[in-house]
Automatic annotation (TrEMBL):
<feature type="domain" description="Reverse transcriptase Ty1/copia-type">
    <location>
        <begin position="12"/>
        <end position="140"/>
    </location>
</feature>
<dbReference type="InterPro" id="IPR013103">
    <property type="entry name" value="RVT_2"/>
</dbReference>
<dbReference type="Pfam" id="PF07727">
    <property type="entry name" value="RVT_2"/>
</dbReference>
<protein>
    <recommendedName>
        <fullName>Reverse transcriptase Ty1/copia-type domain-containing protein</fullName>
    </recommendedName>
</protein>
<dbReference type="InterPro" id="IPR043502">
    <property type="entry name" value="DNA/RNA_pol_sf"/>
</dbReference>
Amino acid sequence: MQEELLQFKRLDVWVFVPAPDNISPLMLKWLFKNKHDEEQTVIKNKSRLVVRGYRQEEGIDFKESFAPIARMEAIRIFLAYAAHKSFTVFQMDVKTAFLHGSLKEDVYVCQPKGFIDADHPSHVYKLKKALYGLKQAPRACRFEMLMMEEMTFFLGLQVNQSPCGIFINKSKYVLEILNKYGMESCDPVGTPIEIKDKPDLDHNGTLVDAMKYRSMIGALMYLTSSRPDIVHATCLCARYQAKPTKKHLKEVKRIFHYFWGTVNMSLWYMKDSGFELTGFSDADYAGCKDTFKSTFGGAQFLG
């Protein structure tokens, strides 16, 4: 916490001033987190002072809030191009990203809990730089970057760079969710879904915990970024999140059974490969049992 406030002082983030009239300062909150490496070993304990920005009003407290963030598709394209050019990808760490961007608006915040000035308890801080939690912070961010090492772990994605190409997977996350949902000792199956038995609304089925069902679907959707083999099965099961039944839960669990036999399956981008875009598409005919609508799907290969 002291280190965080010292960073504020070093970067000239705020100035201590009397509270202006007719101004309601924003509240602050301390957040604590452990930073892990790809082996889930704690490498750093972090504390972060954030603004409760949900009280900000657009047009008064902020105007622009957009910030471009890389999608997983963009990251995969980047890795495919790196493999095509036989590049080695290195990783950099962003240090206090939001504390370098200057603010255009006048924003006041309360004194942080545990660090109230005894002589001026009613004073507030006027922000000169962006702070975590502000609506405009992502748009205003400027940051220092530190070189780390060859990329091996990025946003939950395990990256293995070898002489024959780049492999990406999320095997550690697969094992984590298998353990979370009690599927760590299930029997493996060869396909993520029964080919001849597609799910339907199942009006007379026994309802199950919808929150748990949605949580399982969310975990699977996150995995689709590196596991295109489960996209169709996951999207079919996602149709029934409103009123899931035991039949639907069984279909979702089958995907987890499939994972148990394919934990280490990866996407492989070969070295010195081509960089041509190839697309495939297909559709069934009236395949949905509930609406008799057709289901369309496609896949694009780059490299």
